[in-house]
Design goal:
globular, disordered C terminus
């Protein structure tokens, strides 16, 4: 575990260093793409660093991050759909997500779009959702739309916070972003429940 933690820390620093190079934008796209299927470091790390360096570019970075992540999500979907035994399962095992995989599998039966959106927006490992969606052949249009909405909402929220508050919001985002997204999703779920009960009545 210590070795894995050390590797993750080094990867984190490696990701951050791209913000200080001329290739930061390309690195952001590639990071967003790969994180959707196998890479462990979320693109928010580089997105925050780039947006703080040039706040006026925040929303452009969010767009690049969103596009890269959604395309990467489709690649993750393909892995689950066609390469589950060869690539998908090893990825799930590597991140110790086997138990969560079964939970997601059962959840897909009733809440396809909602599950994808929640994972796309929150700190839930998005790669778990993309691979699982492909493995269980979730409607690809539903998957793509939910991914686009969820990923864009997440990255544009980060970009807006940086654009609005600048450097002083960085520590707040890094410390409390997971909690904020969790609260937001809880509110969405409660909204669905209320709407469903209202519709039944």
């Amino acid at each position: 575990m210590e070795d894995r933690g050390h590797i993750i820390k080094r990867l984190y620093q490696w990701v951050l260093h791209w913000a200080h190079t001329p290739y930061g934008t390309w690195a952001l796209f590639i990071l967003a793409f790969t994180e959707s299927s196998f890479f462990p470091i979320p693109p928010d790390v580089l997105l925050i660093a780039l947006a703080i360096s040039i706040p006026a570019m925040s929303f452009r970075y969010a767009l690049i991050c969103s596009v890269g992540s959604v395309i990467g999500g489709l690649f993750g979907y393909f892995i689950g759909w066609q390469l589950m035994d060869i690539i998908g399962s090893p990825i799930i095992r590597f991140y110790n997500l086997a138990e969560q995989y079964e939970v997601v599998r059962r959840s897909y039966e009733e809440h396809n779009a909602l599950i994808v959106f929640i994972a796309a927006f929150t700190p839930i490992p998005y790669k778990l959702i993309t691979i699982t969606a492909g493995a269980f052949e979730v409607n690809i249009l539903t998957f793509t739309i939910a991914s686009l909405v969820g990923r864009s909402a997440r990255f544009y929220l980060v970009a807006w916070l940086i654009h609005r508050f600048g450097q002083r919001i960085r520590e707040f985002i890094e410390k409390y972003f997971n909690i904020l997204t969790f609260i937001f999703v809880v509110l969405i779920i409660l909204g669905f429940i209320v709407a469903n009960r209202w519709a039944i009545r």
